[in-house]
Amino acid sequence: MDSQKEALQRIISTLANKNDEIQNFIDTLNQTLKGVQENSSNILSELDEEFDSLYSILDEVKESMINSIKQEQARKSQELQSQLSQCNNALENSEELLEFATRSLDIKEPEEFSKAARQIKDRVTMASAFRLSLKPKVSDSMTHLMVDFSQERQILQTLKFLPVPKAPEIDPVECLVADNSVTVAWRMPEEDNKIDHFILEYRKTNFDGLPRVKDERCWEIIDNIKGTEYTLSGLKFDSKYMNFRVRACNRAVAGEYSDPVTLETKALNFSLDNSSSHLNLRVEDTCVEWDPTGGKGQESKIKGKENKGRSGTPSPKRTSIGSRPPAVRGSRDRFTGESYTVLGDTAIESGQHYWEVKAQKDCKSYSVGVAYKTLGKFDQLGKTNTSWCIHVNNWLQNTFAAKHNNKVKALDVTVPERIGVFCDFDGGQLSFYDANSKQLLYSFKTKFTQPVLPGFMVWCGGLSLNTGMQVPSAVRTLQKSENGMTGSASSLNNITQ
User: Fold this and answer.
1) pTM summary value
2) Residue 458 near residue 429, CB atoms below 8 Å
3) Sign (positive/negative) of CA torsion 286, 292, 294, 295?
4) Which of 40, 360, 429, 431 is in Cβ range 3.0-4.6 Å of 462 for a Cys bridge?
5) Burial, 250: exposed, middle or buried (Cβ in 10 Å; 0-12, 13-18, 19+)?
């Protein structure tokens, strides 16, 4: 019966997963169909705009050519009209002179005849008819303004859609996820020397397999990538996976997206558990700060503002965000006394994990480590057999030490600006590093018998955390060789259970 139930549960799980895949594919198809309709409409609008632009250019060129022809016509007509007017005047004067000369032939008196002959001679010498050029100043030819658009027509007849680059292919084998960086590599299915650049898009997700259409984050875009690989660095891995896709672009248009690739980006993400903190600690997500008033001073201040000027019903004008009542702190009794402690909200039950801690410059005392859930409310980190930590004291005298089970090992190293914490639950190892140089500060060797929680103690100062980090490659390398470091091993045996 039990085996049949287990088999049925597996079948149900398989069917549910398959239904989920099919629904996601249906959503993808619907989105693609919608995209085809929207993109087709956009492309048609762009096509109309392009042709309207061509028509506009042709109209402008035509208008310019028409003006050129009309101007040439006007110029030649003016020249010919001027020449014609001059010729008509010259002809009129010449005919008048001819008539005068003809009448002069009938003169009988020699003296009058001689006088008329001299006049005719003088007038002929000065006649404009004999100074005219009898050649037209311009021709009637307009061939220099003729056009032949046969070549342009051929170009127009070759108009076609832009050559679109093919979709690149992302090579998962060549992709690398390490040190909170992701290197994505791709190649073109065939050589294309017209490609100008690539566009890489990525987004975080908690779903394996093909990217989801619904309930997903927006794609982030990296543009103008000249090579065929790109590295995203300084990422916070606050999701299980990341989707990647890439497209090629020539100088005119972007091509199709590559098939999306999903890469695993697993890392420990946790926040500080406000409900577990001491009353004298002010906790906000990944920051904790010493609060000597235990919140009472701030509560009194807020209450004073709320009560000021009240007479019965509170004024509606005093309901802004700034006047909201503070969180109830009276129920936070997980730690008390001098155990100024707060724990992380996520238990570590297996695997290797890494996070970093940075203290405020004026922080007088703080501890960083891990603890079992059974850590007592009055217990301080490192003073019981259920917690391991390194402790920094900057009050009265400066000390830097590793602590466990109320045993202390002084550390002869400089306190770093940021402390990296490496926890190998299965290997029973807790190591602390200079987060910048990756120098090993100290290692605990033990066997964890129950889940552990990141733990922090702070007094007169504050701490900030950086989570969602992979174990750095340098730390992994150091872990492989750490067992050969006799100084660390011998000191661990002195304080480790």
Assistant:
1) 0.64
2) no
3) negative
4) 360
5) middle
